Amino acid sequence: MENRIILYYEKLDSTNTRVKELAKEGAQHGTVVVADKQTAGKGRRGRTWESPAGTNIYMSLLLRPEMEPSRAPMLTLVMAYSIAKALRKRGYGDVQIKWPNDLILSGKKICGILTEMELEGQEISHVVIGVGINANMRAFPEELQDKATSLCLEGGKEVNREQLIAEILEVFDEDYERFLEKKDLAFLQDAYNRMLVNCNREVQVLEPGNEYTARALGINKEGELLVQKADGSQEAVFAGEVSVRGIYGYV
Ligand code: BTN
Questions:
Q1: What is the pLDDT of residues 147-161, one digit of tens each?
Q2: 229 Cα to the center of ligand 1, angstroms
Q3: Would you please indicate which residues are annotated as catalytic (active-site) residues?
Q4: How far is the CA of 231 from the centre of ligand 1 (A)?
Q5: Which CATH number describes the domain made up of 199-244?
Q6: Domain boundaries, given as residue ranges, for the chain
Q7: What is the pLDDT of residue 234?
Q8: Most C-beta atoms within 10 A of its C-beta, which of 53, 62, 201, 225?
Q9: Is residue 113 over pLDDT 90?
Q10: Ligand 1 pocket check: which of 12, 42, 50, 137 to mutate, most ligand atoms within 8 Å of Cβ?
Q11: What are the phi and psi torsion angles at 151 (to 5°)?
Q12: CATH code for the structural domain at 6-194
């Protein structure tokens, strides 16, 4: 994307929150906010996202897509796919995707994505895609040690954060253009499913008020996770409200 605005802050409460403020002030599609540290980093399901200074990537991207709001959760999958591709290009050949919004190395989380949408009446005003990547973190709090890792720990060398951000945005721009052609995920479905850590595994589907165990089969072109229940019936799980976890551990 030409003439992209990238704003860098040493410290913010949350890059997602900052982008939402900028969006209300009329910021343009494609605006990116990066922070070195967040004091109130947000994770999915109301959790906090630990965001110490000088080590990781915290960034948020503003999009103003013209499409039905129900399609917005697909953008999380596009971003996950783009980041996975950018990391593979860099030599992290084993990177996998945990549907819908985590990236995994060695069975542990290295990246989380939080997509937030603002409506204006029935239409999308804007979408904010927030990305947190454990880039150069060398030690994790004890409760995260078996769940989280970093690019540096896995790759054995420090990552240049600016460069990686630029590479991710370049790949995402291309994938986003392809997404807009049909506003579905047919273009990435097969490649995404090959990187899907959940594929053919038992997962626990955490639907509000309805939790069950099923075998994950892969995503469809709407980005829903197809799962097979014990009785053989199939369900398509929608990314907007649900997450899944492995039944034996994090993945
Ligand atoms: C998750 O896995 O729960 C999603 C984590 C998303 C964290 C990123 S860090 C940059 C952006 N700003 C936030 O407050 N959250 C996202």
A1: 999 999 999 999 999
A2: 31
A3: 44, 109, 245
A4: 36
A5: 2.30.30.100
A6: 6-194, 199-244
A7: 95
A8: 225
A9: yes
A10: 42
A11: -60, -40
A12: 3.30.930.10
Straight-line distance from the first to the last Cα atom of the chain, in angstroms, rounded to the nearest whole number: 34
Contact criterion met (CB below 8 Å) for 196 and 218: yes
Query: Could you tell which of 44, 110, 116, 131 is best to mutate to test the pocket of ligand 1, judged by most ligand atoms within 8 Å of the CB?
Result: 131
User: Is 18 a pocket residue for ligand 1 (Cβ < 6 Å)?
Assistant: no
CA dihedral (68, 73, 79, 80) positive or negative:
negative
Task: Give the residues across from 12 on adjacent strands.
Answer: 38
Portion of the chain with pLDDT greater than 90, in percent: 81
Residue 2's pLDDT band, with cuts at 50, 70 and 90, is: confident
What DSSP string runs through 6-32? EEEEEEES-HHHHHHHHHHTTPPTT-E
Prediction pTM value: 0.95
Beta strands in 24-68, from DSSP E residues, in sequence order: 32-38, 57-63
